[in-house]
Amino acid sequence: MLRLICKRLLLVNSRASKYNHGFCLSTSFLRHKSEVSSFTDPRSFTLSYLQNSCGLSQNSALTVSKRFLIEDSEKADSVLKLMRTHGLTQSHIEKIIGTRPTLLLVDVDDKLRPNMELFESLGFSGDSLGKMLSKDPRMLGTDLVDSVEFFKGNGFSDKQMTMMIMKRPQLLFFNANKTFKPKLDFFKSVGFTDEDVAKILSSEPYILERSLENRIIPSIEVLKRVVGADEDVVKAVKGCYWILEYNLEEMLEPNISMLKSHGVPERIILRWFLLHPKTLLLRPQRITEILAEVVKLGFNPNTSLFVLAIRSMAVMSKTRWEQKVEAYKSFGLSKDQVYSAFKSQPMFMLTSEKKIKKMMNFYINKLKMEPSVICRSPNILLYSLEKRIIPRSSVVQLLMSAGYLKEANILYYLRMSEKQFVEKLVKKFQVVLPDVVKAYEGKIEFQGLPVLLKS
């Protein structure tokens, strides 16, 4: 009987020991090096530990266990405990250890804990910390202080550091003074401020991996040839951070030459490029196709509508373009009417397919507009339905119902400037009809207009 009681006590103690660290571990995982060698084969123990403590699949654990052995479970346990203490989930741990299993052999107080604290000081925590480390687990076992201090010393905020590291964690492995300082110095010599550089490179850190001599400097030289002054080069890059990712000699210059050959004035090209630089970074073959379409539609190259038409076509695939044409056609517009509206207002095709359906449904089914009316006034599809169209329609509806407006040309009221609309319809009638303010604020549901458009 005494032997049976002792066995049960040992069983209870064994089970309790599994939860010593707040998570279930096989008791064999808590053995020290001497115990591992005494009770089990190190390779079998490593395989078992990787599966049960780190969450690796059997195949992954088998592959990993061929490359290294866990001979001291106490060190491995402390690594896992540190990860969990800093909010890493089992899924994060599985990815990190599966990619970098040797982290289980690293001394916690040497690099792991200091790096965890460094990341948290920058703003990483829990899931964001786990996602970043899953991208490149080497971050935990590398001395990163010098790299972090380099970027901070060059004006990068903690938030910008976090953004940059999340996108390209491997940048912290470079010798920052040797690799990155010449690039930062070059940007500043062109006219970029410390704030500009930090903002651009934290958003597009891939630029830092580009060759200064073979990519960055030649790209800036191309921009100088195109826009002239350094201040306009800065403006172009700030308008499209990833412009320096492209080979501008092969893409930008040929596209500009094509526009000039079609009669587009240089001043229009320059203004357009500074406002929307990425439009001219398409493959020259695609620009050629778009130019042919725009010319075919009869746009005048001496007007800004010509380049707006190119931009509208450039930002979407042919498939997406056709889907939008079909969306308009589903509400009664012919293909010719769609293209007629496009010629009048090229931005008309930049409206998302979802918004097209929402706006057309409201205009046709709520305001009872004819498709031809919308075709002749495509600008109304650029307005906000919730912030402009419905509130204004509600105001007009209320004023007509109360007899203050006899008949309404709703298009006239939709096109009014905000200041005009408030002065002529809201402030003018808010004393005699207080609900007009509620209607304008969207607090009265729109029911429909008794009279819509003058003939």
UniProtKB/TrEMBL annotation:
Taxonomic source organism: Parasponia andersonii (Sponia andersonii)
Family under the similarity heading: Belongs to the mTERF family.
GO molecular function terms noted in the UniProt entry: nucleic acid binding
Keyword Transcription regulation attributed: yes
InterPro entries associated with the record: MTERF, MTERF_sf
Keyword Transit peptide recorded: yes
GO biological process: DNA-templated transcription termination
Keywords: Transcription, Transcription regulation, Transcription termination, Transit peptide
Name of this chain's protein: Mitochodrial transcription termination factor
